[in-house]
Structures are given as structure tokens and as C-alpha cells.
Amino acid sequence: ALPREGTRPAVVGVEPGLLPGVPPGGATAGAGLAGRLALGDEVSVAGRSFAVVGLRPSSADADDFAVHLRIEELQAALRTGAASELRIFLEPGADPAVARRGLAAAEIGAIVSGIDRGEVAERGLQGSLEAHRRALYAFVALVAGFALLLAAHLDTAERRAELATLVAIGAGRGTLLGTVVARSALVSVAGSLLGALLGAAVASALAPEAAALAALATLPAVPAAAIAIGVAAALPAAVAAAKRDPVPELQGWFG
Which of the two residues, 165 and 210, has the higher pLDDT score? Predict the structure, then answer.
């Protein structure tokens, strides 16, 4: 049984040579169990505990949802010296229900469990797409931050006289920081919302249902992410503007 959920995944005994680096009393978990098992967790088999010492990469088959032990240790825990697993691969178009009924009628004394290979492959594909999507989001955030950094520096350079005048009439450094940062945040939010809406419109034309789900999942986070990026990008220019002496700026501006 798994320690966190109490469920019962498939347990497979294999020759020690197929488990390199796995000591006695150790086990490896398939990629499909990675969300429920971590290194150091223990798996209970017939009252005996085995420590998870490795996570196997996806093989796009039933082993993704199985725990592998040394076969002699599994046989000892189950008090049997025989093999305990029979794998059946159905031909395309075959009905799995018929195979299940046939195995049940054969009274082989084993639990029948089925794994859809297409489902396993789909899970692996979705995981890969999610990783690429996160990398793309990070790249877009980096580019947006760099663009906002340049925009904030240009903005403070063009508004030197205005910012110096604010200081001259009594505005504090906090006011200058807030002025520059707020402007950058507003520009970031406006640009991100416009981009999100345009992207949603294009996605709706291609896949309406998927676009609706994506919009519900991402749109609420867009303003928060935009504000964070805008503030972070504007801080260097805002700090530099707040530290600048307003007297030379005003003398140069008014002659």
C-alpha cells in the first residue's frame, strides 16, 4: 500500500540485474507514481516495508504505475517461489472486457488489472507539453521584464525635469518611487491584458472549448503576474531617479 493514499499499485518482482543500484530492501517507482511516491517513502507489501530509492523514467506502459522490487524479496514477502504476474497484450480492436471475463473464468488465482497504453502515452505527452509551456512562460516573462526595464529607464530619462520639480516642491523619495513604479505596472497590466485577450480570440477561432478552459485558468493570474514583472523591472530606474540631485537637473533645464 502507498503511504500517502493507501492505494494498491501493481508490484513487480524483477531480477536484481534489472535494478542497478537498488540495495536489498529497496524499491523503484514508475513515472506514473511520482506524484504519490517520493524518494525515502516506504511501500508495504504483505506487511513488509520497502524503501523507495529510485524513480524510473516513463516507459509508456504498465510499468509506469508499478513498484519494482527484487524478485526474491517479493517472493519471500508473499511466501511463494513462483512467478506472480501474467501480462497479456491485446490485439488492436480486441475487447478488454472479454479478456477480463476469460481470465476470471480460468481461476488463475490472481488479481486482474489493466492499463491503457494510450492513456499512459497521453500522460507522458501532457507532461512534456506542460514542461515546454512553463519554459515558454518563463521566456516570455524574461523578455517582457527586459522590455519594461528599458521602458522605465527611457521614461525616467525623458521625465527628469518633471521628477526634479516634484522633489523641489517637497515630494519625497517614496513619491518618486511610486510614480515610476506605478506607471510601469500600469503599462505592464495593459499590455498583458491586451495580449491575453488577443490570444484568447485567436484560440477561440481555432478551438473554442479549449480556449474557454485556458482563459478561465490563466486570465485571473495575468494582472498579478504583470504587476509583479512591471514593479520589478521599474525598480532600478525608480531608485536611480529618487537618488538623483534635482538641483543640477533644474539648472540644466531652465538654463
Answer: 165
In contact, 59 and 28? CB cutoff 8 Å: no
- Name the residue with cell 489493466: 114
Nearest-angstrom CA–CA distance, 140 and 146: 10
For residue 42, report the phi and psi dihedrals to the nearest 5 degrees.
-115, 140
CA pair distance 23, 40, nearest whole angstrom: 13
Give me the percent of the chain exceeding a pLDDT of 90: 0
Averaged pLDDT of the chain: 75
Q: How far is CA 154 from the centre of its chain?
A: 35
Place of cell 513487480: 12
pLDDT in tens, 128-152: 777 887 888 788 888 888 887 888 8
Q: Which are the contacts of 56, defined by CB distance < 8 A and separation ≥ 6?
A: 28, 29, 30, 31, 63, 64, 68
What is the reported pLDDT for 105? Answer: 72
- CB contact burial 41-58 (16+ within 10 A = b; e otherwise): bebebeeeebebbeebeb
DSSP 200: H
Helices 173-206 and 160-168: crossing angle in degrees, nearest 10, is: 140
Asked if 176 and 238 touch (Cβ cutoff 8 Å), the reply is: yes
pLDDT tens digits for range 17-44 = 777 778 888 988 888 887 788 888 888 8
Q: At what angle do helices 173-206 and 221-243 cross, to 10 degrees?
A: 150
- In this structure, are residues 218 and 196 in contact, taking their beta carbons and an 8 Å threshold? yes
**Measuring CA to CA, how many Å separate 4 from each of 36, 54, 72, 170?**
7, 17, 26, 61
